[in-house]
Amino acid sequence: EFHSSGARYATRNPYSVLGVGENASASEIKKAYYSLAKKYHPDTNKDAKAKDQFSDAQSAYELLSDPKKKETWDQYGAAGFDQGAGFHPGGGSAGGPFGSAAGAGGQQGFGGGFGGGFGADINFEDIFGAFTGGGRRNRGSRQSPIHEEILVGQDIEVQTNISFMDAAKGISKDVLITPLVQCKTCSGRGLKKGQSRSSCQKCGGTGTRMHFLQAGFQMASTCETCGGQGVVIPRGGECSTCNGNGVVRERKTVNVDIPGGIEDGMRLRVSGKGDAAATGSTANANPHSTPGDLYVHIRVTPDAKFARSGANVLYTASIPLTTAVLGGEVTIPTLISDVKLKVATGTGTGDKVTLSGMGMPKLGGRRTAFGDLRVEFRVMMPKYLSANQRTILEMLADELGDKSAKRIMNVGSSG
């Protein structure tokens, strides 16, 4: 059994699909639809479920934007769109709101009870096209809400470099971009003042060309003259500033807040700061459009003192041999200031000490959540010794009973 998109909502609440309340105004419903359409549009969202979610939003908006259908839903709910009941919104049949036997039997086909919530003037070809991404514009006398085209501009990607300390503390940085913006001369229409688009003569305003093949087969292709829009700009009627595109390049500076704790190679998204959509090439005289997004790739310059592992900061502290043997206290740098660190007696190369909460901020966590500063000791061994130093060390070797150490001064051989 075939079901139109009206049947989809026999068990689904269009208000819930759009995420609005039943008392939502027309502007609130429209805003919710545009938001979902932008989020789930198959051209920008490659998730496998995005197409279905986009179609759900379209169907819900188609229902709620039609006053008669909205009134029917508000009065009867899903029952008003039950295919088996043969309900017709424009009905008034003898059987009451769920009344006509012809509708229940399905004998009226596309124009009668079959639609279950769609009026007789719905173009099913356009509905299928909208669900498959092929919907362009209504060829009838009125524009159906299901075709309201939302043009989305391209995203822009840039790269910016910051220091290790900027990555630790966060920084607000200006980024230079050259996005497409709406042409001020034509206000995005792509036309000179007083000009208007006309129906494409090559395709008769359909946007497609039919090619007849052998054995009676036909093949449709996008009209190369109008690019599938069905309308063309008269020769010489293009806006001279934007060449009919409705958009031009413009240098801009965007301030980007880079959070503390960001890592090298991460990417930040600045919503709505990408290219504006080329509204001059669309068939709709007043298209709805939204700009793309700006993606900023972050490169963090390595630091001479510190390294990092996630939110943890790594530092290697070089200590003298005597401090390692005797113990003591050394000064080490942190991300904020220098601190004193005690060195235990007998510390060796590779020994580690952790200073909790003195690392990088943890992204996505609480504002007070930080990683640790992990200090690794490296004992500095002298390569050259004075006679006095060697004498002292040979005496220490004797004291420790170290018979493998090399003796030159022979301080313990007399007597």
Q: What does it look like?
A:
The structure is a single chain. The protein has 415 residues and is of the alpha+beta class. It is built from 10 helices and 19 strands. Helices cover 21% and strands 22% of the residues. The strands form 8 sheets. It has a 4-stranded mixed β-sheet. Strands 2-13-11 form a 3-stranded mixed β-sheet. A two-stranded parallel ribbon has the order 1-12. A hairpin with a 6-residue loop joins strand 16 and strand 17 (339-343). Helix 3 packs antiparallel against helix 4 (50-64). The radius of gyration is 37 Å and the shape is elongated. The N and C termini lie far apart (115 Å). Mean pLDDT is 79; it is low at 1-11 and 84-146.
Give a short overview:
By secondary structure, the chain is α+β, with helices and mostly antiparallel strands. It is built from ten helices and 19 strands.
Which helices and strands, and how do they pair?
Blueprint: H1 5-8, H2 14-18, H3 26-40, H4 50-64, H5 67-76, H6 101-105, H7 124-132, E1 150-152, E2 156-162, H8 164-169, E3 171-177, E4 180-182, E5 198-199, E6 208-212, E7 218-222, E8 231-232, E9 247-249, E10 252-258, E11 267-270, E12 288-290, E13 294-300, E14 306-309, E15 312-320, H9 321-326, E16 328-332, E17 339-343, E18 352-355, E19 373-380, H10 387-400
Parallel strand pairs: 1-12, 2-13, 15-19
Antiparallel strand pairs: 3-10, 4-9, 5-8, 6-7, 11-13, 14-15, 16-17, 18-19
